[in-house]
Predict the structure.
Amino acid sequence: MHSYISTKKLFFLFSLSLIITSCKKDDDTPQEVIQEPTLLQWYVDSDTDGFGNPDSALGIQSTTKPNGYVSDNTDCDDSDIYINPSAEEDDYDGIDSNCDGKNEVVYQTFSKTYGTNEFETGSFIFDTSDGGFLTAGSQYSPTVNNFIGSYSFWVVKFDIEGNLEWEKSYGGPNDDSISVMKETSDGGYIMGGISTSEEGNVYINYGNFDWWVVKIDSSGNIQWVKTIGGSKRDELGDIIETEAGNYLLAGSSWSSDEDFIREGINSSGWFVMLENDGNVLWKSHFDDGYVTSTVELSDGTFFAVGYKFTASGTMTDIILYRLEATGTFLWTKIINTGFYQARLNSILLGPDNSILLGGNLLSAIQEQDYWLLNLTQEGDINWSKEFNGGRFDNISSITLANDKNSYFITGNETNANSSKNEAWLANYNLNGDLLWKNSFGGSKTDIVNDCIELESGGFLISGYTLSVDGDIIDKNEGENNSQDLWVLKLKPNGKL
């Protein structure tokens, strides 16, 4: 019997022999896979920001990082740690901080103080047709032009660079304090507040504090003055120029005689309409509370806000007023706040015809938050938002952005662990959501009261300061305890 191997088995053995042979070297040892080393180019990082200079490379490529070198080569200024592709960009400082290659705009800013060793404030600010600006506030300084002898209204005109052009004071020998100022359609201004004088520019006093209104032209010359009052304390809260060219005054009075004849013993809210020459057209009052701000609506009626104390005297409620053009009340409404103190001092008609109000809420534990309240023209609440920045927070002004898509708000806050006041400018969208917020000042009390957005971009802000450091660098140490007018010009991003 013959043995044999089939053709299929022979083919299998032959194939297996080939596979084994291909997996061995000539000396029958396994092959080792050798990888080539990776060589990198390294660049000088002189400012140690992690980004290298593309023009300063190591002469040879290397696998090991040398000291002072990085593999990145995208730094556009290797001498400045704050300039690199990950840096925060300021579009208005003339520096390409994030190395994106875009042209930068240089926007000139300033922070300046004006005053003496006495007392000056800036409560209002306006840009003028010559490119400069004008501020108004209160002052007590014997060196000021037209100083009469006590606290008085103070108007100051500056050129485009913030240099003083002229200043004028208004009032009498007793205390006169400004509370409102508005630009008028004739190119001048109307301002008002309280006065206890009856000399100088004030010709009569009915007793205690009276409403006092001054109409001036663009050069600060008085066109007319008006005193409205009674024998008790009278406080002017707001003035607006109406579409008809008259002036609506809003405030409160404890008086019940002279110009404020009424019944009742508590403070009452008053509205007085003046013709454009200062003559009284009509007066209207509501026998309770205080009026702080008012605005004219598109139908010619007026919407106003104020406050009143509850019957127990421990809480404050908000009062809303709606008046016809003749002074007749359409309605009043009460908003119960549940807070020890509630104040809404800023009012603005929004682009959607809603009413935006700003102020503060103070709790019984002496924590004050700033408050935004948005209402319909019928006084119904759209939304209400409280913001807690420090221990005491307050809104001082609200401005609608030129593009009508957001609001610019100025305010002040006091930190919980100090008496220092910090001033700020913030941008909120139309729903009351914070977009950005920038703070300014030094180590002492710094207050901002008013803001305008310039057509050319940027902002002008007025207030006052006691600091001599930080953002206040032009004030002498000798003025360390004096309160000076403080003016800032900011970039379009709200930075100094």
The CA atoms of residues 245 and 321 lie 22 Å apart. The radius of gyration is 35 Å.
